[in-house]
């Protein structure tokens, strides 16, 4: 891949040596975690291909689209209503921030005690490692947690930045503010692209993104089966890829994967042993290539069957209502759907706890692992209340904090194995 795309990466001003080293590490990591799985679903070959071309073919597609006048808009958070971007014939890319590379550079301009996700996106930009960043005409941030919103102030010196104000409560007054923010975002995208957003093109975009959510819901629902028909790490990967692949192509491929899973379910075939302990992971989003917790859990004889996460059910559970007629109605439908995301940045956030309990019961999990990145206050603090309520419900729970480096992997494994041992007794 390197020779094929070197001139493109050079034009994008990547640090070619550091970038090659990053791809090599990623390839090895991917082989150990993913390709080593036995009886893997055939449909995962598409995902393997997308990963193998992560900085190649998709970037070339973006460059070709840009040459044809389309704009590329990068986002970090599932609160950004991507339908508005697609409606203006621009391309939305969920920028990942799941690797440690570039951390030293990030720490030159940010405090060390920030979560890995923030340091990752700043570090990737400063170290010139990410062709997605370099392809973006606009990067959209949001005022979710304090770390992100203050980091964006600095990040704006390096990239074309736009920040959306996200309310932190869900009263009607907050929804009014949120509606104004969505309209302000629509205006921004119209001025970036020179294209008017209409009821027609917004409705079309809503249906495309809803279809993608439906395919991911279908996959998630198949994970209710015993034994689980897909590993948690593969399901996580599918969700991660959904953020940057072409949505129509992705939807088609994931529906094919689901057809294959349904066949396997009928035959009672699974890649996961029937005795594997069923686990839910809940908490901070896991951006690509953050596969650490899933790997530790699944290589300890358990299987993850549900992610209560923004790279998981929080992003796919709710659809945008599709019956709107006017532009105003479509905007209202976006306001409604996006207000239902239960990020820990909200207060109060009881619906998140209700969702965790409901999914734990419906997916018949034996225990919940709450996951937060170190220094992520919203999720770490919220884990306390979740643990207390799950205890009342009789659902075993453990809270783990970690980051992107591998130094604590054995420590993590010891804690997870002890938890699984309790669940097996
Ligand atoms: S956890 Fe909150 S801030 Fe992070 S992506 Fe999800 S909604 Fe956005
Ligand atoms: S993981 Fe937590 S601290 Fe980090 S960006 Fe997300 S909400 Fe903020």
Overview features:
single chain; about 425 residues; alpha/beta; Rossmann fold; 19 helices; 8 strands; globular; binds iron/sulfur cluster
Plain-language structure description:
There is one protein chain. The chain has 425 residues and is an alpha/beta fold. It has two domains: 2-197, Rossmann fold (3-Layer(aba) Sandwich); 204-319 and 343-424, Rossmann fold (3-Layer(aba) Sandwich). It has 19 helices and eight strands. It has helices at 2-11, 16-35, 44-52, 57-67, 82-87, 103-109, 116-126, 131-135, 146-155, 172-193, 199-222, 232-241, 247-267, 292-298, 313-316, 327-338, 350-362, 377-393, 409-424; strands at 72-75, 91-94, 138-142, 161-164, 277-283, 302-308, 367-373, 397-402. The strands form two sheets. It has a four-stranded parallel sheet, sandwiched between helices. Strands 6-5-7-8 form a four-stranded parallel sheet, sandwiched between helices. Helix 6 (103-109) crosses helix 7 (116-126). The longest helix has 24 residues, at 199-222. It is globular. The N and C termini lie far apart (49 Å). The model has no long low-confidence stretch (mean pLDDT 96). One iron/sulfur cluster binds at residues 77-79, 144, 285, 310, 341, 343, 345.
